[in-house]
Amino acid sequence: MLKIGIIIGSTREGRNGEAVSSWMYNFAANRNDQVEFELVDLASYNLPFFGTIQQEAEQIIEAWSKKMASFDGYIFVTPEYNHATTGVLKNALDYLNREINNKAAGFVGYGGLGGARAIENLRLILGELQVADVRTSVTFSIITDFENMSVFKPADYHQRNANEMLDQLLSWSSALKALREQRL
């Protein structure tokens, strides 16, 4: 059975990421794909800035590494900050390499342009980490899919992209899992 992590890529107070990630989790789980989905909240990992490792943070870094290694694929949920993904998500990815190599990723973005530039930014980062990203992403507008830019009320048409993204992600995750197992 495939195991897919849905990563909440923001830790800000009052963030919209929890609502968007919960929507994606519920949507994915209700498809009955015989896949295990799990929400992973970066706020639960108090990762230090990469390169400033304190000894007391080693257990947190190890827990993050093991959690990410346990998945066959990922859905990264990211807001767009200054035309890019969040610093906290970039920092968290900097701690990883072999744990996520040869796995697949899909994206859910939100922001002024649906988080499209944050998603493009993540595609570059994950390419260097040997993560295969799928073409279709889900993009929520902070203007039209949120009431007062804070209450998540997604339009129904997003379900089509969510289905396409999940179809692609599960296909790639399955193929790459077979490749990883073949190499063992």
Automatic annotation (TrEMBL):
Q: Where is the NADPH-dependent FMN reductase-like domain?
A: 3-141
Q: Name one Pfam family in it.
A: FMN_red
Q: Which Gene3D superfamilies match?
A: 3.40.50.360
**Protein family according to the UniProt entry:** Belongs to the azoreductase type 2 family.
| PANTHER family xref list | CHROMATE REDUCTASE, NAD(P)H-DEPENDENT FMN REDUCTASE LOT6
The protein's name is NAD(P)H-dependent oxidoreductase
Identify the taxonomic lineage of the organism of origin: Bacteria, Bacillati, Bacillota, Bacilli, Bacillales
